[in-house]
Amino acid sequence: MSGRSDPAANVCGVRLIDLELDLDVFAGPFDLLLTLILREEVDLLEVDLAEIVIAYIDHLEHQGELELEAATEFLVLIAALLELKSRLMLPGDEQELIDLDPGEAADELLARLLDAHRYGQAAAHLRERLESQQGFRFRSAPLPPSLRRASLSDASAVYDPARLAGAVGELLRLPEPVDIRHISVPKVTVAERLAHLRRLLRQGRFSFDEAVASADRVTIAVTLFALLELYKQGEATWIQDEPFGEITVDALPPAPAAEPAGVAV
Asked: The domain containing residue 29 runs over which residues?
């Protein structure tokens, strides 16, 4: 081991893949294997990365679902391990072409792992913000200048408190009463139409159209109320053979007077 600081100690706080491995050179959890590789206690050249990928695919099939965050983390780790292993497998006569030695490559692997963890935390924060604002969105950033139709100073003047109060005051002001003196309303009462209907009943059966001949709408409505009053008092009834057909009004016979109660002798 070189005199560098232990890079595996910085892995604390980073959530790794929950994957159990059974390889020729190692058996145990994936995070432990990564720690041993970073500490250079396990030779990466002896680790079959293809078996790790196959084990992860079996792990996904066993779970029955794909967790995107965990899958992304696994892809980042495998890609970094493949790059580090490819640097170790280069021939010795080409060592001058290698930018990083194995120790620096391990540090780079750890840096990428920490970056992936930070990106995952940022994505979780954005996901919580999105769920908390479900159904509505708030714009915290100002509108771009290219989309503004007026400057901020002009826009603030539109919402002057005095002007807003004046607008609300106009809404609360009661309107002037409506003048309906120009509308002529026929003055007809229910008592007048009752007298008219009783006069027709004394002559015999009649139709409702005859009772309201040449009458306006108000008179027709009052006549209908008068007819209902006659029915209520038991003076008249009506017959209509079909919907919207002619209404025939008949007088009802007066109800028989109640016999006086007998007096006991």
From this structure: 7-90+99-132
pLDDT tens for 3-19 read 444 444 444 334 456 77
pLDDT digits (tens, 9 = 90+) for 34-54: 878 877 788 888 888 888 888
Check if the beta carbon of residue 221 is closer than 8 Å to that of residue 253.
Answer: no
pTM metric for this prediction: 0.34
CA–CA distance from 192 to each of 215, 219, 226, 254 (Å)? 13, 10, 9, 22
Residue 257 lies in a domain: no
The domain that holds 219 is classified in CATH as 1.10.10.580
CA distance 38 to 33: 9
Sheet with 236-240, strands from edge to edge, namely 206-207, 247-251, 236-240
Which residues are within 8 A (CB) of 186 and not within 5 positions of it... i.e. 6 or more apart? 216, 218, 219
